[in-house]
Amino acid sequence: MPLLSTRLLEDAVNEFARLPGIGRRTALRLVLSILKRSPEEAEQFGNAIIRLRKNIAYCSVCHNISETEICSICSDHRRDKSLICVVEDIRDVIAIEKTEQYRGQYHVLGGIINPIEGIGPSQLNTTSLVEKVRHGPVHEVIMALPATMEGDTTVFYLSKKLHPFSIKISVIARGISIGGELEFADEATLGRSIINRIPYEHKT
Fold this sequence. Notes:
- The protein is of the alpha/beta class.
- It has 7 helices and 7 strands, in the order αααβββαβαβαβαβ.
- It has 2 domains: 7-55, Helicase, Ruva Protein, domain 3; 78-199, Dna Topoisomerase Vi A Subunit, Chain: A, domain 2, CATH 3.40.1360.
- The N and C termini lie far apart (54 Å).
């Protein structure tokens, strides 16, 4: 796409195009859509992004996004603190919560082990998970990770770390297709996968 008519337009398109899954043509359509809005609406849009970036933090307990030090799920006394669901990222928390089939707590790893991309256990929230199990009233850890080689590698690594503790380690049922991501599964399938979870067989 050639240079646009003004530097302001060009800069705005470049910023939108930096977002994942957004090409320059889509970025241009988004920018032009904003220009069609009133100045007040455009300012409201911009301020929402600024407030999001400034005020959203990560829960000190589970690493989910939160406006407070401890997120609403971790601070909810009605949730089962003995049950922890380990997920890859925040999108998986949202997907599982939409099923309304899970009443435990979460632990967001912030990714999965992927040596090709240079992502190892030290880049993930693994140490805090081990400490949570060591010191907390945890009876079961559910590994709700993608059904991929990287996901299985991460489950294997975490199971070895958690093996010394007397807890149950389970994985979600394979209602999720091999190679599938949790966020793209329909709610009924994902809900059944949580309910019908199976024990993880630790192999040394």
